[in-house]
Amino acid sequence: MKNYYDILGVNKSASEEDVKKAFRKLAHKYHPDKKGGDEAKFKEVSEAYSVLSDKKKRAEYDAYGKTFAGGGAQGAGFGGFDGNFEDIFGGFSAQGGPASGWDLNDIFGEFFGGGQHNRPRGRDVSIDIELSFRESIFGVERRVLISKTSVCPVCAGTGAKAGSKMISCTTCNGKGSIRETRSSFFGAISTSRTCPQCAGRGEIPETKCEKCDGAGVMKREEEIRIIVPAGVEDGEMIRMPGKGEAVLGGASGDLYVKLHVKQDSRFSREGENLLTTLPVKLTDALLGAKYKIPTLDGEESITIPAGVRHGETLHVRGKGVPHGRGSRGDLLVRVEIDLPKKLSRTARDLIEKLQSEGL
């Protein structure tokens, strides 16, 4: 396993500023665009800095030898670095003075997986919907209207007027990206960014769609069909990929649906089972009886065995929460013996007689 402290040449008690200084020195030394630079070494010190500069990741690394927030530290690459290179190298320029005229975050973007030519992605959208208890158990289909940036319904996202063709983008010559060369203290560095004219597609409409003015996307109300599966619980989230906001030249974001389940006065839930209570008369508890009980499928008949105790649970098979392939949990019926508040003289005499017999 790599030792990130050794890679940066600092000890385990090094401060954040010491870690930053060590990385700045080594990055300057090993940058591959410099004469005598070493790309492998540069990536290695960058990986070490991406962990040791982050308090949470550093604590995980010190405790376990790896990080969890952005994947394992060893071989994790640079996806976890979210610092600002201007802050680290802010005092450097090709002439040794303050950096100006170029963006160090752009320069290092390609090494850290954050290059500006990456395909854009639309924003995620979240909504809340309320379900009845029954809907949460058996599932339901809902249709909701959401106001969001969506693909233009007229041009289907091309941005072109019907019958108009797409032509090569003159800004990027059909490449979808623009390459720029800037001067830095490392020397001349080339970077690539998404073409702002065609949004990385390499082509533009010869005649723009009148509905969206060539944008391919527009703010509008869109009906979304949501399938809520059986057996969901309160607070669960359904993720619907690609149903978030659309963006020209990229992938749509996701839609997150948070579920709120109403309580039911008759039932509660315990995993795959449903629970209910059944008041039973004292005489029925002693002698046994048949009762009608409500279920989510309609009324069912249940046998109360003679001598049932208060708080005892009876099972009604297959009337619980659906799960697996056609299987369902049980309905658990908790017996609550309903003791009379007042006794007639006759009833009292009978009970006293039973008491005298030791019952």
Separation of termini?
A: 74 Å
Determine the structural class based on helices, strands and strand pairing.
alpha+beta
Counting DSSP H or I runs of 4 or more residues, the number of helices is 9
Overall strand count: 17
Query: What is the 3D form?
Result: elongated
Strand order of the largest sheet: 10-11-17-14
Poorly predicted runs of 5 or more residues:
69-86, 91-107, 109-117
The level of helicity is: 10-25%
Write out key terms for the chains shown.
elongated; four-stranded mixed beta sheet; 9 helices; 359 residues; alpha+beta; three-stranded mixed beta sheet; 30% strand
Quick structural gist:
This protein has helices at residues 4-8, 16-30, 39-52, 55-64, 85-89, 104-109, 133-138, 282-287, 345-356, and strands at residues 125-131, 140-151, 166-168, 177-184, 187-194, 203-205, 217-228, 237-240, 255-261, 268-270, 273-281, 289-295, 298-304, 313-316, 322-323, 327-328, 331-338. The chain has 359 residues and is an alpha+beta fold.
Write the layout of secondary structure elements.
Elements: H1 4-8, H2 16-30, H3 39-52, H4 55-64, H5 85-89, H6 104-109, E1 125-131, H7 133-138, E2 140-151, E3 166-168, E4 177-184, E5 187-194, E6 203-205, E7 217-228, E8 237-240, E9 255-261, E10 268-270, E11 273-281, H8 282-287, E12 289-295, E13 298-304, E14 313-316, E15 322-323, E16 327-328, E17 331-338, H9 345-356
Parallel strand pairs: 1-9, 11-17
Antiparallel strand pairs: 2-7, 3-6, 4-5, 8-9, 10-11, 12-13, 14-17, 15-16
